[in-house]
Each structure stands twice: as structure tokens, then as C-alpha cells.
Amino acid sequence: MYDTLNNLMTKFSKETTELRDDLLREVKRMDDSKEKEPEFKNASIQVKSLVQRLGALTNNFTSHVTQCVSRIESDMMIIQGVCNTSGTRNDVHPKPTSCDDVDKSGVHTIYPDFKPSGLEVYCEIDQGKAWLVIQRRKYGTVDFYRSWEEYKTGFGNVSGDFWLGNEFLHHLTKYKSRQLLIDMETFEGKKAYAMYDEFGLSSEAGKYKLSIKGFNGDVQDRLTMHTGKMFSTNDADNDDTSTRCCSCIYRGGWWFTDCFDSHLNGKYYYKHETVPSPHGIWWFGFESSLRYVAMKLH
Fold first, then answer.
1. What is the pTM of this model?
2. Of 45, 198, 223, 224, which one's alpha carbon is 20 to 30 angstroms from that of 12?
């Protein structure tokens, strides 16, 4: 960490020095110019003043960073010494590897084996049960008409509308199936849910094929028919029909058949908008596009 900070500080100093030199060269060019209008001279003076301020701010910034790094190093040495002498190393809280390791709902960084650098997720703790939110449609601020690569790595903001990423979903379900909960709500305030005992995705080589079974809920089962289907996007048409591109027509990535019984990644329509059926965020059984949906794993 310290090497990274030092490298960044060195890079910052170098770039600001180069910028300052460029400005000084421009000032010299202005001073040497044949133009002697008062406005021109005033501009030269102002630029010189800005260069001086830039130098002062740069020095102040690098000084503060150096002091902070020194304090951190000093504190870490003290902590390390305490741990080594008192044998309390095991008292240091380990990094969470899943939502099961956190105690409150919200945005957390977990450190699973497949992502040791950390993965930002939204955990939802409900009656002592930890859920990892993998998709949410709430505000309509994120366009879900995305490419294969974007669906692979994820997009959006985990505190708002987002897709966690197919590659992460594959690794999360690689060695064991997860329970899937889908919460839904209409613009009229009607809430519903669909629960599946097992949810999993194959690897990218298998086109992130869906595996799902064991339904219960207060809506009709509209996802089981998609089991065994490959994921499709606007640039990777893996649906069951050769005559059209379901993802292109319905504006989102999904495990399409020809085309769907459910499609929770479609275009977000607001209440006042006219929705051409079955476009939008769709779950057959509802009369129109949904206002809210969230997919969660346990």
C-alpha cells in the first residue's frame, strides 16, 4: 500500500511539475511577444501568479501525503508489535468473504476466493438471513441494453440500479447452488415474490447457461422455463430462435427462449409512459411493466 501511495505521489509531482513548466514556457512566450497591450501583460501576470499557487499547493499536498504515510507506517508497526508480543493476532477481525460475514444491510466489500482484491456488493440482512443482491431495478437511471462484456463484468451502482456481473454469478454458484429470491412491485403498490431453491450459472464457455429449480412464491413460476438457456445480449444472440434477436427487440440481456416468460432486465418504463406489451420489466401474470424488482442470492 505504501509503495502504491509513494508511486502515486511521485507521479502527481512529476505531472504537476511538467504542467508548471509548460505554463512558464507559455508565460515566457507571452513576455517575448511583440504584443504589448495592457490586457496581454495582465494575463501574463495572472498566469505567473497561478503557477506560484500551483507550486505551493503541490508542495503542501505532497508534504501532507508523506506525513500521513509516515503516521500509518508508525501505527502499523505499533500494532504489529502488540500482536507479536501479546499473541492477540487472531483477535483482528478477518475480512468478510460473503454477506454471511456482515451484520447489517448496506454496501460492503467482500473478499471471496475468486476476487481477493475485493468485490463491492449490497448485502441485505432480513430476519437473520443474509442475502446478496445481484440485480436491482428501482430508479430507471441505468440502461440495461448492454453488451456481453458489460453483462459479464457488471454495471450500475450496487446502492441503486445494477447488474452484479455474470462472471461473478458463475463463481458464486460454481461449487454450490444458491437460493434465489426475486422481489417485485407494481406501480400500484402490489408486492410479490418468487423463490427458487437452487440457482446457478455455467462458465462463460457455456454462455452462462441458467440452472434453476424448486419454485415457491405468490406469483406464477415464470423463470423455470428459462432453465438450460444461454445468456443473450445485443451483441451475442444465443436465444432459441434463428429468425430474430430477442435481446435486441426487448432491450436487455437475459436467458431468452423465443423469447420469454419473464424478462427482468428490459427497458425501464415510468408510470406515465405507454408500455408496448410485453416490453419493459416483465413477469407474465402482471398486467404491465414492473416498478421495482430485485434478485438476491443466499
1. 0.69
2. 45
